[in-house]
């Protein structure tokens, strides 16, 4: 005579209390994360026979993130852990939305074109300023060739002492040395 299978207790309709599920979630979480990285429980959620418990994450570098442990009733009324995730909470620091490469390339090309145009505009302004005869406050810039009325500057005697200024700068020193030598000879 064959034995009849034992009747299964229907525990799927009566889940364990919140404390028991939180303790089960915490013990499963300790298996995958250091105790120091697990904070206080943040509540129990239920959807479609799956219960999830959230814990604060105290892991360095993850402020505002939470551990999420999902559990369900298995065969024979045994509760088991389905998944463990580290998920961003409402105040978590997260990366910006992903932007496709083609959009990033288009933005880069546009910014490079703007930079090149700005450099060209700046160079054009410099070229315009170089050709401009406007008064910028320098008195030497006020004289033009026409202001000298035909006077040849090379022909002017610009030496205030009335001495001739030699074309070769070495001649000036030779002249000074010769004068000093003559004075030295006369003093003896």
Please describe the topology of this protein.
Layout: H1 18-30, E1 38-47, E2 50-57, E3 65-73, E4 79-88, H2 101-131, H3 169-187
Antiparallel strand pairs: 1-2, 2-3, 3-4
Descriptive overview:
The protein is α+β, with helices and mostly antiparallel strands and 188 residues long. Among the domains are: 18-88, Nuclear Transport Factor 2, Chain: A (Roll); 96-130. 34% of the residues lie in helices and 20% in strands. The N and C termini lie far apart (153 Å).
Task: Give me some keywords for this one.
disordered N terminus; alpha+beta; rod-shaped; 188 residues; 34% helix; 20% strand; Nuclear Transport Factor 2, Chain: A; 4-stranded antiparallel sheet; single chain; 3 helices
Strand/helix succession: HEEEEHH
CATH class annotation of the domain at 18-88: Alpha Beta
Straight-line N-to-C gap: 153 Å
Query: What value does the Rg take, in angstroms?
Result: 46 Å
**pLDDT < 50 stretches:** 1-12
* CATH architecture label name of the domain at 18-88: Roll
Short synopsis of the structure:
The protein is an alpha+beta fold and 188 residues long. It has three helices and four strands.
């Amino acid at each position: 005579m064959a034995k009849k299978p034992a009747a299964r207790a229907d525990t799927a309709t009566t889940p364990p209390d919140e404390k028991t599920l939180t303790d089960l979630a915490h013990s499963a979480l300790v298996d995958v994360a250091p105790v120091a990285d697990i904070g206080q429980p943040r509540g129990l959620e239920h959807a479609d026979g799956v219960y999830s418990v959230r814990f604060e994450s105290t892991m360095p570098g993850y402020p505002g993130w939470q551990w999420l442990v999902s559990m369900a009733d298995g065969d024979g009324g045994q509760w088991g852990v389905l998944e463990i995730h580290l998920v961003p909470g409402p105040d978590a620091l997260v990366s910006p939305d992903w932007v496709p490469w083609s959009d990033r390339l288009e933005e880069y090309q546009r910014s490079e074109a703007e930079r090149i145009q700005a450099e060209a505009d700046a160079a054009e302004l410099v070229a315009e300023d170089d050709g401009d005869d406007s008064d910028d406050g320098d008195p030497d810039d006020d004289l033009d060739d026409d202001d000298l009325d035909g006077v040849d500057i090379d022909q002017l005697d610009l030496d205030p002492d009335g001495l001739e200024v030699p074309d070769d700068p070495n001649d000036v020193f030779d002249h000074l040395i010769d004068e000093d030598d003559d004075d030295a000879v006369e003093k003896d």
